[in-house]
Amino acid sequence: MELKSWYAEEKPWIIAGPCSAETEDQMMETVEGLVKQGFSTIRAGVWKPRTRPNSFEGVGEKAFPWIKQAKEVFKVKFAIEVASARHVELALQNDIDILWVGARTTVNPFNVQEIADALKGVKDKPVLVKNPVNPDLNLWIGALERIHQAGIQKIGAIHRGFSTYQESIYRNIPLWQIPLDLKSRYPELLLICDPSHIAGKRDLLFEIAQKAMNLRYDGLIIESHRSPDEAWSDAAQQLTPANLKLMLDKLQIRDLTIASAKLQNKLDQIRDEIDETDKELLEVLARRFELVKKVGNYKKEKNVAIFQLERWNAILKNRPEWGEKLQLNPDFVKTLYQSVHDESIRIQTDIYNE
Ligand SMILES: C=C(O[C@@H]1C=C(C(=O)O)C=C[C@H]1O)C(=O)O
Questions:
Q1: DSSP 8-state symbol, 236
Q2: CA atoms of 110 and 252, how far apart (whole Å)
Q3: Is the sign of the CA dihedral 108, 111, 117, 119 positive or negative?
Q4: Which of 29, 240, 303, 345 has CB atoms 3.0–4.6 Å from 226's, for a disulfide?
Q5: Per the database record, which ranges form the Chorismate mutase domain (predicted)?
């Protein structure tokens, strides 16, 4: 894939705008607010794939005259999501500047191919591909390849997190390792983070955006609405243009020259990735010990012994086997779990002694 050369925007490249285009008024006022804060690439959902029926599914084609007006008045570029050949056709007819393929589309190679076919001969339009909702790097790469093979040269990836059934503080768990693997394989691929969809709520946006900057993402796509609480979709995760600016101003972004000097230092780059992976490892461990505490409290209530031989034997048998499937040395996994188990016993003993 030919990659970042097409992209010469400011660093980081910020794409900001409402989750959905709702009304002419909402669009014009939001874009005006964003332009006042210095933003010039606007996002807006025209068609919205929603999890459940009877939610607001976007205003559809009605939004195009509003977009046209906003482009003329404020001299901005517009990015929208496309999920079918028809969407692509309409986006091109209506002079949309940047297209993105959403996470629910990336999962389906038939859909992606349909979009790719509709893009044949277009070439110059930037197309960004969101990660699939499920944590499958190859599916993400496959979608990027399909778009690229259609002749699109200006291509990029958006990391928006992954769906999960497990309880999480995130709306979509970030699993940073996956976009980092993508970055390792295609160091020149434009990589943008979507903190809004990872966070699902305002108060997590900053830390996610900062992490993306620490990991040298090229940009952020963030939802912003003139009055977020009244938004017809994703109300909890949008910011006013002014608050978006305040948040972005707090981000620490390394000086470009140091960043690129450092980038040459492959070792530093890999160590950064190790740091981030270790943070995740510790988060997972902390989650495990929270569960161990729950078991401890329950056992205390029911007056059950702390040490459970059968359960422990089962763990000691299958964890090394699980590890082996991930190319981990079973002896190492066994030792690791012995240490984890010791800590579980210590934690539960504390609970019993409380
Ligand atoms: C968590 C428990 O308590 C202890 C700790 C275990 C663990 O860390 O996985 C397993 C068995 C018990 O010896 C439990 O009983 O499940």
A1: G
A2: 40
A3: negative
A4: 29
A5: 261-352
Q: Which residues pair with 52 in a beta bridge?
A: none
> What's the 343 CA to ligand 1 centre distance in angstroms?
10
| Token reading at 226 | 């003139």
- Record the tokens describing residue 152, joined without a space: 């699109």
Residue 101's pLDDT is 98
Task: Please report where in the chains the tokens 């690791």 appear, as a residue.
Answer: 336
The pLDDT value recorded for residue 262 is 52
Query: Over the chain (354 residues), what is each successive 10-residue block's mean pLDDT?
Result: 61 94 98 97 94 88 98 97 98 98 98 98 94 97 97 96 89 94 90 97 96 91 97 94 97 63 67 88 95 97 95 97 96 96 97 94
* Cα–Cα dist 180/32, whole Å: 35
- Scanning the structure block, which residue is given the tokens 């409380």? 354
ipTM of the complex: 0.93
Q: Which two tokens stand for residue 313?
A: 């034997």
What residues are in contact with ligand 1 under a 6 Å CB criterion? 292, 295, 307-308, 311-312, 315, 340-341, 344, 348
Query: Domains of the chain, with CATH numbers?
Result: 4-264 (3.20.20.70), 267-353 (1.20.59.10)
The alpha carbon torsion through 16, 21, 27, 31 (nearest 10 deg) reads 10
Q: Which of 311, 338, 339 to mutate to test the pocket of ligand 1 (most atoms within 8 A of CB)?
A: 311
CA-closest candidate to residue 354, choices 288, 296, 291: 296
Give the number of the atom of ligand 1 that is nearest the alpha carbon of residue 291: 1
Is the distance from CB of 16 to CB of 34 less than 8 angstroms? yes
pLDDT at position 258, please? 47
Q: What is the DSSP letter of 246?
A: H
Residue with tokens 């929208």: 80
Locate the DSSP E strands across 278-337.
Answer: none
